Amino acid sequence: MEHIDMAIIGGGPAGLTAALYSARARAKTVVFETGLPGGQIVTTDWVENYPAFPEGISGAELGELMHRQAEHFGAEFRTFASIESIEAHGLDFIVTNSEDEKVVAHAVILATGAVPKRLHVPGEAEFTGRGVSWCATCDGALFRDKTVAVIGGGDAAVEEALFLTKFAAKVYVVHRRDALRATKCIQERCFENEKIEMKWNRVVAEVTGADGKVSGIQLKATNGDPDEHLPLDGIFIFVGVEPKSELVRGMCELDDNGFVKIDHNGLTSYPGLYAAGDVTVSDLKQVVTAAAGGASAAFEALRYIDERTCSIG
Ligand code: NAP
User: Fold this and answer.
1) d(Cα 239, Cα 133) in Å, to the nearest integer?
2) 275 beta partners
3) For a Cys staple, 268 with which of 43, 120, 212, 252, CB 3.0–4.6 Å?
4) What is residue 267's DSSP assignment?
5) Which stretch of DSSP H or E encloses residue 83?
6) Mutational pocket test of ligand 1: of 40, 183, 285, 289, the residue with most ligand atoms within 8 Å of the beta carbon
């Protein structure tokens, strides 16, 4: 079996920064990524709150730069194979992928991120890919001159609604309260945009369809107003994220929502197992905090490996 120092599961900003720190410390570092390196930011049109880019940078370019930097310092990438299990092996870990290839690692950093939440309403699953989407960057151009709705009131919903105005004739933002959660400067742009109409105090009760594609949404009012049907060509759902923490369930402590509990250095409740980025319990889920978490986790994991190696040696 192949032996490495550091297995990093996930190639988003947290994993890529962990890989950069680990590889620069000359640890044998492998990043395992189900798709291409970059993570969720690859599907983000524009990132304008990552330091050093005064006008912002496309999410795809930022992800690629982080990838190149980690690779430049010697991190290896194994892409397009998902990790199926992480098992304890003495003080080490055996990491097994979907091809049943195994590596033994002294330490593991879980940086698997999070996936968008579902609404769990009738029609959502049936019309996914037929008008229901979780990625405006991927699917927005399909809705040129059409009418779409974005569901949610956080940063993701409002940013993606603004992005969709590049294509769609009209964008509704459907929010369950009467105030947005999104950062104020994004809210201002949203309220100024003539293509955007707010649907306050509304939740989606059903996604309706006709001829095999979305025809609209049935909205239920949360403030006692009458319910209504909104005719639409597309619906983009951004109601938060849930962690991809299945791999370590049972191995380390998770919170009630499945996010991995870590200390301020990225250590989980299991020795040698670290975590960083959106998969962890954290108030602020940003590229910059994911990158910082990846750096801390790598720093601590390297120290853990060194201490073990010294005490064995
Ligand atoms: P979020 O901040 O958790 O916001 C989720 C939104 O969806 C909230 O407005 C919430 O309403 C609403 N919601 C939740 N469940 C719902 C349901 N079942 N039905 C209807 N509405 C529902 O999630 P996010 O916007 O996906 O962002 C996730 C994290 O990434 C956040 O930390 C965010 O700051 C970060 N992020 C940052 C940027 C950026 O900095 N540029 C961009 C994207 C994401 P309530 O407000 O009533 O709770």
Assistant:
1) 12
2) 110
3) 252
4) B
5) strand 83-89
6) 285
Residue 43 CB less than 6 A away from ligand 1: no
| Dist. CA 302–CA 23, nearest whole Å | 10
Rounded Cα gap, residues 267 and 128, in angstroms: 37
Q: What angle do CA 150, 155, 159 make, to 5 degrees?
A: 60
Judge: domain 2-115+241-312, CATH 3.50.50.60. yes
User: In angstroms, rounded to a whole number, what is the distance separating the alpha carbons of residues 7 and 19?
Assistant: 9
Indicate which residue of 5, 45, 92, 139 is catalytic: 139
Q: Where does the chain hold its CATH 3.50.50.60 domain(s)? A: 2-115+241-312, 118-237
* pLDDT tens, position by position, 11-22: 999 999 999 999
pTM strictly above 0.85: yes
Mean pLDDT of 167-190: 97
283 tagged catalytic: no
Residue 138 annotated to the active site: yes
Amino acid, single-letter form, for residue 301: A
